[in-house]
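User: Run a structure prediction on this.
Assistant: Running it now.
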Amino acid sequence: MADVPDVRAVETGDEFIHVRFRDPDEFDEIRTPDWAAHAARDVSEGAEVRTGDREGDDDWLVQSVLIQKSVGEEKAREQAEKVVEKIAE
């Protein structure tokens, strides 16, 4: 099983539920790459993934996963963890 970081926060916005795994302030740059969105959509329709880059580190880490609001917070949390597992494989 892939090493999945703990969920730090779950916040409901206008369109998405933001499931945060890492603080955005930890990163110099944050992107929403297409390749990650494709992996996320295999788990949850319309999901997006925000990845972050730390200065001096070549690895991009999942900062948060955005799940459609209609799913609900509990299900969004579960789906976000599955997305991170899939990306880590």
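The helical segments are 34-43, 73-88.
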